[in-house]
């Protein structure tokens, strides 16, 4: 991309530090990361600079002297071209269904385990159950073992979590949630108050109490040492596997309930608009293809109508993501003094905008504007020419016919077209391994060739 002509450098140079960034996207990323902290006028300058660059790219694309050549780079409107014919996929197999089955089983397993743990946790910490007070008292153990039997000490010689051998310095302990024997190092402790919060987290009364602060505490809902806090609060010893299971459950509930920041909704809107665009684009390309290849099924006004739909989605992505840039400057909902959160919030907003700009660029480049009457005529002529060329080639490939002496008469054209089509079907059938069909098509070809030989002799 970088060209050096004397002292003149060309390419996507950074207007600040004159580094060549290779392409527009990299330049934007570089600029936002390195120079964005500077005044907003510079930023505006970059955006107008970027827009100019993009515009010139688009102009190149639209005002080319060879519309058909440029166009065919992006769209194949001539599916009958002998040389650049479509490549078929060959054998494919989707493993998605299998993946879903495996995943479903796994999810079910996790769900069942989690529900079991929650049920036990509820019984183990429910104040209405008159649980014997904390400590290694016999009554307490009896109560705990009534909920989940403990694994027999004598049959276990290694920790079920770290596999280290038990002995004098490594004593056996039990996870209160699944009864497994673990060592002290692999033990986690959960306070009754936190256990209650997890058990009650999915009930409506606590739904509104989720805060960012709690998110920070997610990892510490269990601890690796017994907390001797002032009130000497009751706690449970659990294994790491059970602790992880509870954490994951709580995290899920948490993210389901925490009020989403506005930027989530903006982001979702952008993604939605992107989906819409991609879908409508398929229709649009099909319509343009049809018009350019000489079909009369669609008119220019059909293309224009769909193009307007595309513009709506395009605008939506652009305007929504622009709002996010304003968010990046103001950082609403973030504490004034929380510098690092503000920085991350602003980066997130700008990154979404950058992503949107990239999406829009790709859309610009991959979407042709509605062709003019002139362009349609040119494309149709080009198609006519290549059709004729193709037919001449097909004629040469028909056994028993000397193509050089054969005039491409109007009566013969349908035969040749059909011959070519059957050839293509046959290739597809061969690729897919449908041998019976190949044989049938082969005999069809021979019949066609025979018919043409007869016509040729007359
Ligand atoms: Zn720079
Ligand atoms: Zn262990
Ligand atoms: Zn456990």
From TrEMBL:
Q: Which residues form a coiled coil?
A: 431-458
The record's annotation in InterPro entries points to: Rab4/Rab5_effector, Rbsn_Rab-bd, Rbsn_Rab-bd_sf, Znf_C2H2_type, Znf_FYVE, Znf_FYVE-rel, Znf_FYVE_PHD, Znf_RING/FYVE/PHD
- From the UniProt annotation, give the residues forming the signal peptide: none
Name the Gene3D superfamilies for this protein: Rabenosyn, Rab binding domain (4.10.860.20), Zinc/RING finger domain, C3HC4 (zinc finger) (3.30.40.10)
**Keyword Membrane belongs to the record:** no
What are the protein's GO molecular function terms?
A: zinc ion binding
- Residues in FYVE-type domain copies: 153-247
State if Metal-binding is listed as a keyword: yes
Which Pfam families does this chain map to? FYVE, Rbsn
Q: Which UniProt keywords apply?
A: Coiled coil, Metal-binding, Zinc, Zinc-finger
Q: What is this protein called?
A: FYVE-type domain-containing protein
| Organism of origin | Rotaria magnacalcarata
From the broadest rank down, the organism's phylogenetic lineage runs:
Eukaryota, Metazoa, Spiralia, Gnathifera, Rotifera
């Amino acid at each position: 991309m970088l060209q050096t002509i004397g002292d003149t450098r060309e390419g996507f140079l950074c207007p600040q530090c004159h580094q060549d960034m290779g392409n527009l996207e990299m330049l934007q990323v570089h600029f936002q990361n390195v120079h964005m902290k500077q005044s907003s006028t510079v930023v505006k300058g970059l955006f107008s600079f970027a827009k100019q660059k993009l515009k010139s790219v688009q102009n190149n694309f639209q005002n080319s002297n060879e519309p058909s050549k440029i166009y065919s780079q992006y769209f194949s409107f001539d599916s009958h071209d002998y040389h650049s014919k479509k490549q078929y996929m060959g054998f494919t197999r989707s493993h998605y269904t299998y993946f879903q089955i495996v995943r479903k089983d796994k999810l079910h397993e996790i769900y069942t385990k989690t529900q079991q743990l929650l049920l036990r946790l509820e019984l183990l910490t429910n104040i209405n159950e008159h649980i014997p007070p904390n400590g290694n008292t016999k009554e307490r153990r009896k109560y705990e073992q009534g909920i989940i039997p403990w694994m027999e000490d004598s049959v276990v010689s290694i920790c079920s979590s770290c596999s280290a051998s038990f002995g004098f310095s490594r004593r056996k302990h039990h996870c209160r949630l699944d009864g497994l024997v673990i060592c002290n190092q692999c033990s986690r402790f959960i306070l009754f108050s936190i256990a209650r919060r997890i058990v009650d987290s999915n009930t409506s009364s606590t739904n509104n109490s989720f805060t960012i602060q709690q998110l920070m505490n997610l990892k510490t809902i269990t601890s690796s040492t017994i907390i001797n806090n002032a009130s000497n609060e009751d706690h449970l010893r659990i294994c790491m596997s059970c602790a992880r299971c509870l954490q994951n459950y709580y995290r899920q509930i948490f993210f389901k309930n925490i009020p989403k920041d506005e930027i989530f909704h903006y982001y979702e809107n952008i993604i939605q608009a992107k989906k819409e665009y991609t879908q409508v684009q398929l229709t649009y390309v099909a319509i343009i293809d049809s018009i350019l290849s000489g079909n009369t099924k669609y008119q220019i006004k059909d293309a224009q109508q769909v193009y307007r739909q595309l513009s709506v989605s395009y605008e939506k992505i652009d305007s929504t993501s622009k709002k996010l840039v304003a968010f990046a400057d103001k950082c609403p909902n973030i504490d004034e003094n929380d510098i690092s959160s503000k920085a991350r919030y602003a980066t997130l907003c700008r990154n979404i905008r950058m992503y949107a700009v990239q999406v829009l660029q790709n859309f610009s480049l991959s979407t042709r504007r509605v062709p003019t009457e002139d362009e349609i005529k040119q494309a149709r002529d080009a198609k006519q020419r290549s059709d004729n060329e193709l037919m001449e080639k097909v004629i040469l490939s028909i056994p028993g016919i000397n193509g050089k002496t054969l005039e491409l008469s109007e009566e013969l054209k349908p035969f040749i077209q059909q011959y070519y089509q059957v050839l293509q079907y046959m290739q597809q059938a061969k690729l897919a391994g449908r041998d019976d069909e190949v044989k049938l098509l082969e005999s069809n070809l021979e019949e066609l060739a025979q018919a043409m030989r007869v016509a040729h002799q007359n």
